[in-house]
Design brief:
single chain, mainly alpha
Length: 116
């Protein structure tokens, strides 16, 4: 496969992943707003909660245990991985086309534990 064809394919993947990520962020925002509004008013008791009470209820009710929330988060993470994979591969293909030595993928292992 020619490098220009591969570059075009990678650019298309980057564009598609970007659109999917934007859509996932919009869905996440709409989900949180809808849930916040639901937490804001209690139609059974006929009361309206304060913003801080509503956020606390939202976090307790949904963000920690909701399969919808967890699935949205996983979906976002998956799209981000695809986006960066395609972006880094495009950088390597472009470097190789220019006759440069393509940069190797870099992975960092960070240990936050400090003996002492």
């Amino acid at each position: 496969m020619g490098s220009s064809i591969l570059e075009n394919l990678l650019v298309e993947r980057i564009i598609a992943a970007t659109w999917r990520l934007k859509r996932a962020i919009r869905v996440e925002s709409e989900f949180i707003n809808a849930e916040f509004n639901d937490c804001r008013s209690d139609s059974y008791a006929g009361l309206k909660r304060s913003k801080s009470e509503s956020w606390s209820l939202l976090v307790n009710r949904h963000l920690g245990e909701s399969s919808t929330w967890l699935n949205l988060t996983r979906y976002e993470t998956s799209i981000e991985k695809q986006l960066y994979k395609a972006l880094h591969e495009l950088q390597r293909v472009q470097s190789a086309r220019k006759g440069e030595k393509p940069p190797l993928p870099v992975a960092l292992d960070i240990d936050l534990y400090q003996e002492g």
